[in-house]
Amino acid sequence: MKHKLTSGQLLRTMNISEMVLHNNSDNSSFNCTIDAFKQAIYPVVYLFIFFLGAVGNSLSIYVFFQPSQRKTSVNIYMQNLAVSDLMFVSTLPFRASYYLLGSHWIFGDIACRIMTYALYVNMYCSIYFLTVLSVVRFTAIVYPFKRWKVTNMKYAKITCAMIWVFVLAASSPLFCKQIAGFNNPEKCLDLHPESTDILLMLNSVVLAVGFTMPFCTIIICYVFAIRALLKSRTPQRRRTVSHKKALSTIIITLILFLLCFLPYHVLRTVHLILGSCSQNNLSVHKALVVTLCLAAMNSCLDPVLYYFAAENFKARIRSLYRR
Fold first, then answer.
1. Phi and psi at residue 144, in whole multiples of 5°?
2. What is the pLDDT of residue 147?
3. Among 45, 154, 208, 217, whose CB has the most other CB atoms within 10 angstroms?
4. Nearest to 182 by CA among 193, 197, 171, 198
5. pLDDT-based confidence at 184, cuts 50/70/90?
6. Which of 275, 137, 135 has the alpha carbon at shortest distance from 217?
7. Distance CA 83, CA 88 (A)
């Protein structure tokens, strides 16, 4: 009898062990579901952005650097934005290949760090260049007869240089291996499981300086520009001609922020607060994947801004098309 009882206990223990193993298997399968979602979404989106962004930004840079192209502070800011976008889209085939190979990195540790670094350099250079463009256009609407430093050619070049230096330096912590990826050199472009606390602290600073301040600046420019146009006594036709590009710049920039940057910064913050992936926050982690794609898509949407708002850009494009 004693032997049978022991066998029963052993049987129950085995059943419990099987349940634990089954649960672990489910958790492993769950984690793989997140990887599978990334592997289904990222390659398609990244390659789409690469082809569209490479063509759009290469053509934009070609037009901006034409000797006959009008040299203005607005075009200088847009030139730098196009260069930043082209540098970023050139990294997308490497990012796509990582997910096509089943989240397996084959290009080495240094290249992995460069991929992470390039993403955030482009994102925050884009944010700052778009913000300065909105300020320049804002001054053209609200103070049409005043000449501000921000609209000066020399000041525009200095401002662009300062933005590059600041963003390149501020993004340098991403070269740290503990932040850029896993200790395994074959694992890249994913959050290091032990770096969440560091990233949460960095995110708080970046969220304030790199997104919230520029976003609030653009909203203020938009509100006061609309207010100035409504109060303007200039005849409607003349007002449309003189302010069309300025208003287009601010509106398109605001749309880019709302579509590309706002969702990503909100979801990234929520993602870091929640921590590791679990069944309860599965939707948040999947949403973050989608918002990162939207943030990357900014690189192929910026040429739309150039077409409608850059000085003499539309005429040059039409001239090239006729040729």
1. -65, -20
2. 65
3. 45
4. 193
5. low
6. 135
7. 9
108 or 48: whose pLDDT is higher?
48
Which pTM does this prediction carry?
0.84
Return the number of other C-beta atoms located less than 10 Å from residue 26's C-beta.
11
Burial class (CB in 10 A: 0-12, 13-18, 19+), 246: buried
Domains of the chain: 34-322 (1.20.1070.10)
Token pair 């929640």: residue = 274
Number of residues in the chain? 323
Scan for tokens 């609030």, then name that residue: 216
Banded pLDDT at 16 (limits 50, 70, 90): very low
Instruction: Tell the burial category of 48 from Cβ atoms under 10 Å away from its Cβ (0-12, 13-18, 19+).
Output: middle
Helix residue ranges, H only, 171-210? 177-180, 196-206
Sign of the dihedral through C-alpha 77, 78, 83, 89: positive
Compute the distance between CA of residue 254 and CA of residue 262 in angstroms, rounded to an integer: 10
Bridge partner list, 181: 188
d(CA 286, CA 37): 7
Residue 277, classed as helix, strand or coil, is coil
